[in-house]
Amino acid sequence: YSRLIDKANAPIFGVDADLRVNIWNKKAAEITQFSNEDAIGQNLVETFISEEYRLAVSEVFAKALTGTETANFEFPLITKSERRVEILLNATPRYNELGDVIGVVGIGQDITDRIAQEQVMGENLVETFISPEYRPGVADVLSKALNGIQTANFEFPLITRPGTRIEILLNATPRNDLHGNIVGVVGIGQDITDRISQEHEYFRLIDSANAPIFGVDTNGNINEW
């Protein structure tokens, strides 16, 4: 039983009647970055739940401790790096051999990605995720695709929710319905942030080298100096 819990492909944790962690499987450790040793004995609500959700989570576990199961309860766990992971939880009473409730077992599902997808649906791509100086270029590429013209290898930056800039190499393709009418655009992208960073570093090293460096193309024309 313990081995099955530990190897399950879902975060599973358990608490005693005082809400102190006594089960913390490998998936829970992987998602939260808190090891089994870090978690065991800690108060689940006070240690791993953000303050605004503590009351609601406490109520769910209090119900389970009286024998009432709660299914599909959503709440965030806080990771060791203080990242928020959204969990869909089933909280089930845990009984001893006499039928007394001695704790709660929570079986969870990480729904962080699903919630992130739901949050962006309906947003205007250009206005929400593109920095102002690139909006006209991206809008033009999307407009062309909506008129049946595909664009390949278009480079532009996406802005993440924390404000990080990610460089994308994009193919923008018209999306057609069953009758061949264009109903939208599909963008297939590649994250080239690291590649561009390496290229910038390469050019910086060349430019600051203590030696004359030049380059020519296949026609003998200078393209690096």
TrEMBL record:
From the UniProt record, list the reaction(s) this protein catalyses: ATP + protein L-histidine = ADP + protein N-phospho-L-histidine
Q: Which Pfam families match?
A: PAS, PAS_4
Show where the PAS domain sits.
Answer: 1-68, 198-225
Q: Which UniProt keywords apply?
A: Kinase, Transferase
The catalytic activity of this protein is classed by the Enzyme Commission as 2.7.13.3
Q: Name one GO molecular function term.
A: phosphorelay sensor kinase activity
Keyword field contains Iron-sulfur: no
The record, for CDD domains, names:
PAS (cd00130)
Regions that span the bilayer:
none
Q: Tell me if Kinase is a UniProt keyword of this record.
A: yes
The highest taxon in the source lineage is Eukaryota
Task: Show the GO cellular component annotation of the record.
Answer: plasma membrane
| Protein name in the entry | histidine kinase
Q: Which organism is it from?
A: Aphanomyces astaci
